[in-house]
Structure formats: structure tokens, C-alpha cells
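Your task
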Amino acid sequence: MPEKDVIFSSKIKNVGVFLFKDFYKFCYDWLTDETTLLISETKYAEKLKGNTKDIDIEWEGERKVTDYFKFHVKITFRILGLTEVEATQQGKKIKTNQGSVEVKVKGTLIRDYEGKFETTAFKKFLRSIYEKWVIPSRIEQFEEKLINDCDEFLNQAKAYLDLEGKKSL
């Protein structure tokens, strides 16, 4: 069984004006372009409450880094009270959305993802020596890379929402 270590877990919250479909596309494009993760949508649920929507979305992304290491990232979006509103942008009225957005990211570093060191007790022992004495700096390097990617994604999503909110005022 592969070794899995959750090394990043954080979230952002924002309440304001933004166009949901553009935010969705921005997040997907940023993740696939900047981190080269293979993203799949594992959940998309909408609940209508009068003229508002609550949306729950879950994405999972993976990327093989080496034959031994793999990144796994889980992103959860929770949009509450999404309504369609009119805003004035550069003197023109535009249709946009307003609501509360919460984005959670959990980054996991998976070691020995193919389970090559799991076949015998001796191989498990060799893996512990390999990780403790041969590649500890590589493990640290990949952990830092995953943490930086996850953190940068949250920063980009927050900056996007902040910018969209200011444009619509």
C-alpha cells in the first residue's frame, strides 16, 4: 500500500460579486496549466432555494512526479446563496453573480504509489532505509513543491475573486 501524507490543507472564503462560470473556468485552467494536474470532477450538485443556488463541487487532480512520487490534490468548492445580479461596469450594465464562495484544498504526497516496496517485509524495510537515509532531501523538495502549488492556487483564486468584486462596483 502506498504511503500517503497530507502535507497541505487550507481554505479561502469570499463573499461578493463574481461571474461563477468565469471563476470555474479560471480555476480549472490555472490548475491544469500551472500545475499540470490531471483534474477530474468527482461531484457537482446544485440545490435551488427560491431564486438562489447552493453549489457543491469536488475536483481531484493527480500528477506522477517520478516513478516513486505522485501528487494528489483535492479541491472542494462550496458556493452559497448564488444569485444573478446586475452590476455597472465601465458605465454599462452587465449580468453577473453574487454569493459566498469557499474553496478548500488538500494536497497529498504519495510515495511508492505502485506499491513496489509492499510485496515483502524485507522490501518494506528497504523502503524505510531508502526514505530515511537516501532521499530525505528529495521528499522535502517534493513536499515544498506541492505546498507551493496548492498555496499559489488559493492565492490566485482569492485574487481573482477580489479583482472581480472591485470591477463590479
Remarks:
- Residues 3-167 form one domain.
